[in-house]
Every structure is written in structure tokens, then in C-alpha cells.
């Protein structure tokens, strides 16, 4: 039975889903060295933001197939290391969107009305109505940095509260911003004109300390900053200085560069100018149920050999694309495996041609599936959708993708051509009905055969007697032929013969086949 380690606090509904297919161990707050020690036992790891999955942990994780992040941000996972190791990383891109957006809005309002301090003062026996005179958000300008899922929901609610909206997001189109009702501006303008600035960006090399002393110097002295995205996008020392000196009026932070926030952080010393919460953006009952289900289902599926719907390190496999392409991915894997064996082990070039209806689809996943098939003889179960691209690159395989919508023999077909140590070979395949795979050409000779486990391909002259000779030769060695087909372009020209065999071809017979008069070449293939 598979084993799953849950190393952060996850809703029980997720544990129940995982328990259907695996032994689930919940161990929260493990020291990193303990995680490195025990991780080789596990097939899957389920985390939130509390566990840092470092390169060291990934390198030790010899059985790990999947890391599931029950939330959005995967900056606590070394994704390149996981990708190299062939470990799929999944998250829940939308499960906590509303919770995080509502938390940002809560922070904006509670900071504006001093709710945390007023609450504290009443609870400590006071009735002070003078110290907590706040400001309204109505008609104020809200600058949204990062107009993605959370930023857009914040925009919708803020608009309803009568705020004017500016947004900075270099990856969002003007049309999308118009739809949301935001004026798309550059960062400098947003910084200078906003009364409130709310951050909804990932932590990346580009966003690290995006809000720093220089930025605070440009903000209005009445401006307030909200960060419910990621610690590290704000320079906390510079923010503490800006608040202390009155360069800006307030800040509300849910996330910090180091979590838990250091006991002696200057941010703790800023009184009513700052509202601090301990990374609670996703902490609603609803969001925790959503992310736990979303991620546990993906872990369960991957452990059962099915694809994940929200993998962050499998190129091109978005859920809607995946659903439509699934049968074609199987076709691509089979053809990749076949052409790889025909071309010989050391392939250095692969042309992936999407034809007919397939030409109109996203090619990335089909290319990855073709490479997975191509490399499967060499790498066996070590190659998967996660690392096939990297493995191919490291082996110097040059890949080109072409599209030809004009080929209409089948609704959609895939043509792979590979150059390897046995020369250049090509195969084409299509789907019969929705799922049945057919090999429809080999080296451009038309055939129509289903792939089977053991196959023999010959290239020969189309003259009488060849089929009989091969049949008797295989018979002499007790090899049973399940089916046989010949494909040719012209009568008595060159032809291919494709045989499906019940058993693998015994050692040495291939050399005998090549000696048969009229046979130019022969290949065995195991799919
Ligand atoms: N506090 C919490 O508990 C909590 C909960 C959920 C999500 N988050 C964090 O909130 C952030 C946003 O999440 P989301 O689901 O909206 O993500 P998203 O991917 O939908 O949106 C992020 C947006 O940021 C934009 N962006 C990227 N780089 C940028 C840059 N340099 N400048 C400006 N914009 C840039 C992207 O184009 C995208 O539109 C993430 O960092 C996520 O980890 C925090
Ligand atoms: O990126 C996220 O989803 C949030 O930061 C939530 O983190 P959490 O799961 O640790 O609450």
C-alpha cells in the first residue's frame, strides 16, 4: 500500500480521501533533518506553507511521486529539484481565493477603523472613543498589485464599496482590466496615486522587496499598505522605518519574510499603525475544505496512476486540455516508444507533427508525451510527464513541432520522425473511435494495425514468397504470429510487414530474418 506523509495541518476531509488508497501518517512540525530521514518511506507528501520542501529533502525522497500543496503558493517547494527528480507538484489554485481576498479586505477595513486596538482597549476595561477615529475607504483609490484570481475578487468588492481602482500587472491585458473595472497603470503611478495598496503577487526574483524604502518615499503620507500575498515582497525593515517616521500611514500584514515572525521584529513595535495576523488568509472553514479535497484527490489520482489536474511542473497539462487530449497523449507515448526503438537507442532528433484536428490543439503536452514514450526504453519508470522534457534536453535530443491541419485521413493523427543510431524512421498513428490506437504508417508505408506488446517490422521487396518464408522461419522457432499486415506504396516495390507476436522474439532470430532473400531490414519492438 502507498504511504502519504501529511506534514502540515490539513482538514480531515483530505485525510479521509487519501486513506481510501494509502496509509496516511500525519506528522506536523517535523524538524527538517527528521523529514530528510523519513521521506524515503513515502510515495506522497501533503503540505501547506509550514513545510519547506528543500533540495535536500527532495534528493532523499527516493519513492516520492507527488508533493501536494493544499493552497496556492508553492514558493516553499524547490520546484526545479522536484522536476529533475520526476516528482509532480500540485496545488489548489482556486480553493482559497475568496478566503484570501476577504482577508485582504478585512485587513483594509480593520486597519482603517483601528478595530484590533479598539477591541483590545474595550477588553481591557476602557471606553475610549477618541483614540480610534478612523478613515473611510469610500471614494478612495485602491492600487492593486497583481490582478490575478485574488486581486480580481478584491477589485470586485472594493468597487462595490465605492473605491476607485488602479491596477499594476504586467501580464494582464487592458481588456481584462477593463472587464474588472480597473485602470491599468505602471507601478510608479499606482504607488504615487493610491490611498491603499494591496499586494496579490507571487514571491519571485522580480517581486522580492518590490516594496522598499524607495517606494515608501514615493507613497502618500496618508497611504496604507496591505500584504496578504507573500512575505519577502516587502522589505520589512524599510516598512518599519516608513511607518515610524510617518512616511506612510499604516500597514496590515498577514505574511512575513520569515514565518513565524521573529519575536524581536520591529513590526511588532508599531502600535495602532500596523495590523498583524499570523498567515490567516486561507484560514476559513470553507477554504480548508476546498484545498484539502482538491489536493487530496490529486494525490489519490496520481497514486492510482492517473494524471493530476493542477500540476505546476507538468507543461501544458491544464485540466481542460488534459481531458480532451488524454487519448492522444496515450497515442503519443505509444508512437514515441515505437519510433524510438525503430530509430535505435540513441535518438538525437525528433519531429512531432500534429495533423488534422490535432493540429488545432495545444502541442506541448503531446510533445512531452512523445518524449516520455521515446525515453521509456532507456529510463523505464524514471521518466514521466514531469521530467521528460529535461531528460530529452540533457540527452541532446533536438525536438521540433510541426502542424499540418490539411491531413484528413483520420480526424486527428500524430506523425513522429526520429533520427537515431539505426537511421531515420517515422510512424503515424490515429485514434479509432475515441480511444483505440491504430498505427497507420511506418516509414510512410500505409498500414492499419493496433499496437501490441511484441511486434516485428520488416522492410522488404514486395515479391511473392517473402511472407511465407518469414512465417515458416518463425514457425521453426515456435514463435506464434497473432496478426500480420503488409503495407506498400506500389506493387512489387518496397513494402513493410508488421507482425504482432504472442511472445518476444527469441535471441538470434532477427539475424536469420534479415538473411531471408528480399528482406532489407528487420526490427523487433516491445511496447
Ligand atoms: N495569505 C494567504 O494565506 C494567501 C492565500 C492564498 C494565496 N496567497 C498568495 O496570494 C498571491 C496571489 O494569489 P492568486 O491566487 O491571486 O494568484 P494568481 O496567479 O491568480 O495571480 C497573481 C498575479 O500576479 C501577477 N504578477 C506576477 N508577477 C508580477 C509582478 N512582477 N508584478 C505585478 N504583477 C505580477 C500575475 O500576472 C497574476 O495576475 C500568491 O502569492 C499566493 O501565494 C496568500
Ligand atoms: O498560498 C497559499 O495558499 C496561502 O499562503 C495559504 O497558506 P496556508 O495553507 O499555509 O494557510
UniProtKB/TrEMBL annotation:
Matching Gene3D superfamilies: 3.30.70.260, D-3-phosphoglycerate dehydrogenase, domain 3 (3.30.1330.90), NAD(P)-binding Rossmann-like Domain (3.40.50.720)
Protein name: D-3-phosphoglycerate dehydrogenase
E.C. number: 1.1.1.95
Leader sequence segment: none
Cited Pfam families: 2-Hacid_dh, 2-Hacid_dh_C, ACT, PGDH_inter
Chain segments annotated as coiled-coil in the UniProt record: none
This protein's UniProt keywords: Amino-acid biosynthesis, NAD, Oxidoreductase, Serine biosynthesis
Family of the protein in this entry: Belongs to the D-isomer specific 2-hydroxyacid dehydrogenase family.
Catalyzed reaction equations: (2R)-3-phosphoglycerate + NAD(+) = 3-phosphooxypyruvate + NADH + H(+); (R)-2-hydroxyglutarate + NAD(+) = 2-oxoglutarate + NADH + H(+)
A GO MF term: NAD binding
Pathway where it operates: Amino-acid biosynthesis; L-serine biosynthesis; L-serine from 3-phospho-D-glycerate: step 1/3
GO biological process: L-serine biosynthetic process
Domain ACT, residue spans: 455-527
UniProt key word Oxidoreductase: yes
Species name: Planktothrix rubescens CCAP 1459/22
Purpose of the protein: Catalyzes the reversible oxidation of 3-phospho-D-glycerate to 3-phosphonooxypyruvate, the first step of the phosphorylated L-serine biosynthesis pathway. Also catalyzes the reversible oxidation of 2-hydroxyglutarate to 2-oxoglutarate.
Amino acid at each position: 500500500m502507498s504511504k502519504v506523509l501529511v506534514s502540515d495541518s490539513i482538514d480531515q476531509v483530505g485525510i479521509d480521501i487519501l486513506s481510501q488508497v494509502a496509509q496516511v501518517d500525519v506528522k506536523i512540525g517535523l524538524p527538517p533533518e527528521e523529514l530528510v530521514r523519513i521521506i524515503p518511506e513515502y510515495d506522497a507528501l501533503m503540505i501547506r506553507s509550514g513545510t519547506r520542501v528543500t533540495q535536500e529533502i527532495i534528493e532523499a525522497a527516493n519513492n516520492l511521486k507527488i508533493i501536494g500543496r493544499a493552497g496556492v503558493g508553492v514558493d516553499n517547494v524547490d520546484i526545479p529539484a522536484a522536476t529533475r527528480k520526476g516528482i509532480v507538484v500540485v496545488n489548489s489554485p482556486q480553493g482559497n481565493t475568496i478566503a484570501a481576498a476577504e482577508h485582504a479586505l478585512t485587513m483594509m477595513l480593520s486597519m482603517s477603523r483601528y478595530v484590533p486596538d479598539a477591541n483590545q482597549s474595550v477588553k481591557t476595561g476602557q471606553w475610549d472613543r477618541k483614540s480610534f477615529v478612523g478613515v473611510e475607504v469610500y471614494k478612495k483609490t485602491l492600487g492593486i498589485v497583481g490582478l490575478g484570481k485574488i486581486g480580481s475578487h478584491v477589485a470586485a468588492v472594493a468597487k462595490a464599496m465605492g473605491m476607485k481602482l488602479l491596477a499594476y500587472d504586467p501580464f494582464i491585458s487592458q481588456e481584462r482590466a477593463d472587464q474588472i473595472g480597473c485602470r491599468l497603470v505602471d507601478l510608479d503611478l499606482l504607488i504615487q496615486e493610491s490611498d491603499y495598496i494591496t499586494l496579490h503577487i507571487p514571491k519571485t526574483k522580480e517581486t522580492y522587496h518590490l516594496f522598499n524604502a524607495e517606494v515608501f518615499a514615493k507613497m502618500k503620507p496618508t497611504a496604507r499598505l496591505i500584504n496578504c500575498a507573500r512575505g519577502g515582497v516587502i522589505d520589512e525593515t524599510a516598512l518599519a522605518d516608513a511607518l515610524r517616521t510617518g512616511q506612510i500611514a499604516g500597514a496590515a500584514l498577514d505574511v512575513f519574510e520569515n514565518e513565524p515572525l521573529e519575536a524581536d521584529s520591529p513590526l511588532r513595535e508599531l502600535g495602532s499603525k500596523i495590523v498583524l495576523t499570523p498567515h490567516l488568509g486561507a484560514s476559513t472553514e470553507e477554504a480548508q475544505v476546498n484545498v484539502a479535497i482538491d489536493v487530496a484527490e490529486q494525490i489519490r489520482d496520481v497514486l492510482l496512476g492517473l494524471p493530476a489536474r493542477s500540476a505546476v511542473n507538468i507543461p501544458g497539462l491544464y485540466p481542460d486540455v488534459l481531458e480532451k487530449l488524454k487519448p492522444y497523449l496515450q497515442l503519443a507515448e505509444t508512437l514515441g516508444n515505437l519510433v524510438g526503438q525503430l530509430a535505435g537507442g540513441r535518438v538525437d532528433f525528433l519531429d512531432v507533427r500534429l495533423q488534422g484536428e490535432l493540429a488545432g490543439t495545444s502541442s506541448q503536452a503531446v510533445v512531452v508525451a512523445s518524449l516520455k514514450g521515446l525515453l521509456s526504453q532507456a529510463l523505464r519508470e524514471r521518466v514521466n510527464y514531469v521530467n521528460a522534457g529535461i531528460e530529452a534536453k540533457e540527452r541532446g535530443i533536438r525536438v521540433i513541432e510541426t502542424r499540418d491541419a490539411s491531413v484528413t485521413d483520420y480526424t486527428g493523427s500524430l506523425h513522429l520522425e526520429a533520427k537515431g543510431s539505426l537511421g531515420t524512421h517515422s510512424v503515424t498513428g490515429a485514434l479509432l473511435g475515441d480511444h483505440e490506437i491504430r498505427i497507420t504508417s511506418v516509414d510512410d508505408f500505409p498500414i492499419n494495425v493496433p499496437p501490441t506488446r511484441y511486434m516485428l517490422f520488416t522492410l522488404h521487396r514486395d515479391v511473392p514468397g517473402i511472407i511465407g518464408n518469414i512465417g515458416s522461419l518463425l514457425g521453426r522457432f515456435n514463435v506464434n504470429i497473432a496478426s500480420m499486415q503488409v503495407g506498400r506504396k506500389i506493387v512489387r516495390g518496397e513494402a513493410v510487414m508488421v507482425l504482432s507476436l504472442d511472445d518476444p522474439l527469441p535471441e538470434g532470430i532477427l539475424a536469420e530474418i534479415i538473411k531471408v532473400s528480399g528482406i532489407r531490414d528487420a526490427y523487433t519492438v516491445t511496447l
